[in-house]
Amino acid sequence: MILNKVKSYAIGVLFVFLLIVAWQLKVKDRHLQFANSEKERYYYNWVSAQSESDKNLHQIYRLAELSDRLERERDSLARIVKTRPKNITKIEYRFTVLKIPGIAPLTIKPISKGVWDVVDSTKCFTWTGQVSLSGASVSVNRTGFEYHNKSTEVFYRERSKKFLFIKYGKWINKKQESSECGETSVKTFEFIK
């Protein structure tokens, strides 16, 4: 009888011990899964930060290339005008205002019922597209556009004053822009020495 009681106590203690070990293993497994998920999260964050860093580095390289190109263009312009500027004071952006000479007729070719190919062509541009009619609505889908405008820029210097046929005074730097389909404009500019 005492032996049976000792056996049942030993089995009970062993069962409780096994329950505690199983519970600790389950807790350790949860900790391990959490650590693995954190490790993956840190890795993906590092990868995204690295790609963002590479992108920023690429932008810095592009900015340096653009700066070098602007400097070369400024130096070539300075050689033409025979001055040596120290810095750029202003950058101008050029917009061309088109003057379309007259209205050109459209070329329309039917493809199928309710669908047509349309070509609008002038001296300055060629526009192609497809027009489709469905019920009361019309949809226009542009398939191509070519711009044929030729533009020229001329840089020159001239004196500011004129008496009969003699020019005198301060030199003025000028830039003349002209295009086949746009307006001609003359602008003055100066270099800071």
Element layout with pairings:
Blueprint: H1 2-81, E1 107-112, E2 115-121, E3 125-134, E4 137-147, E5 151-163, E6 166-179, E7 185-189
Antiparallel strand pairs: 1-2, 2-3, 3-4, 5-6, 6-7
Structure report:
The chain is an alpha+beta fold and 193 residues long. The chain folds into three domains: 1-81; 86-93 and 151-189, no CATH class; 107-147. It contains one helix and seven strands. The strands form two sheets. It has a four-stranded antiparallel beta sheet with strand order 1-2-3-4, with no helix packed on it. Strands 5-6-7 form a three-stranded antiparallel beta sheet, covered by helices on one side. Strand 1 and strand 2 form a beta hairpin. The longest helix is centred in the N-terminal third of the chain and has 80 residues, at 2-81. The chain is elongated and about 140 Å long. It starts with a helix and ends with a strand. The model has no long low-confidence stretch (mean pLDDT 78).
